[in-house]
Amino acid sequence: MDLRREFENPCPHLKTLSLRRSRGFYNHDQRSSEPTVTDSRGRVVRSLGMTQTLLRPEQVDDLVAQYREGATLVELASVFGVNRRTVATHLTRREVTIRRGRFDPSRIHEAADLYLSGLTLVEVGVKVGAGPQAVRRALASHGVVIRPGGRCGSRITASTAVSG
Predict the structure, then answer these.
(1) Domain spans of the chain, in order of start
(2) Which of 5, 76, 136, 138 has its CA 20 to 30 A from that of 48?
């Protein structure tokens, strides 16, 4: 069998791999030989220019306790110096049910007026202090017709969005 013919025209990925191997790219370890860095929050992992803070088990216990007492994901993320999605991941691992965004029922009329004036759910949420899905649920439960999603140019007028 003539192998030259089989490998005569390699795909771009194989060319890249071959070039990197020939230049010695894979001969050294990419990880730093420096010891791990720690600060007041605990061990810090450095990865491609992004710093991650690893929470100790007792910190996760405290995080869970504060969440059960009513703290939000954003508040806990700020307190522990991590991303809010990291907080949600820790809570999920501990089998804690994540609360949905709250919408203040006293602001439903304000939200409806803003939405019917042409603002998007995201814009209304920013003004009334709730997430877009919480605004959507609240408006839909009060009979406001939700516009179809899409580009801003496809908005319908406020008068056609009002339910009969």
Answers:
(1) 57-94, 105-142
(2) 76
